[in-house]
Amino acid sequence: MGTEIYINGSQIPDTHWSEKISAGWDEELVLSVTGCFPELIPQSNSEQNHFKVSFQLNEADAARVIPQLKLQFRRQHLDIKILYSSGIDLDIIPVSSDKGQAMQFLRQKWGFIAEDTVACGDSGNDIALFAIGEEKGIIVGNARPELLEWHRDNPGKYCYLAKNTCAGGIIEGLKYFGLME
User: How far apart are the first and last CA of the chain?
Assistant: First the structure.
C-alpha cells in the first residue's frame, strides 16, 4: 500500500518515509471511527501496520458504507485515503501515502530518472503507481476490473495493458517498452 519502506533487508521501516507520511495521521482515531461500522471486518494482524488499517468489506455493502465512512472521517478532520480493491479489501492510509508516492520517494532518494523506472500491477490498490509521474507502467492481463476501468478512463503513453497474465504480462510489457528482448 506504500505505507512502509524497508531498505537493505532492514526490519525497521525507513524513518524518512514514516516521518513524511505521518502528518495528519491518527491511527487511534481511525480505529475509533471504523469501530462504528459493523460491516468492516478487520483483516489479520499481518495485514495491519501503524500507517495502514485494513478490513474486509463485502462488495454488496461497499457502495453504502464507504461514503458514510468518508463523511465520518471528514467530521473528525482526518485527511486519509480509502482504497477499496478486489471487491473485498478496504485499506485506510494517510493521504500522503500510497504506492505511487512511495515509488516517487525511492526513485528520488536513489536518483533514478522516471524513464528508467517501471511499475507493475493488477488491482485497484495499484492505480497510484500509474497515476503519478512519467514512470513506465505495466498492467498485467489478469488485472482486476477496477484497474482495467481506471486504465480505460485514463489512457496514457506511459502505461501498457498486457494481454498475458502475471509474470508473462510483465515480460510482455518490458518488451513493449524496449527494456527486454
Answer: 31
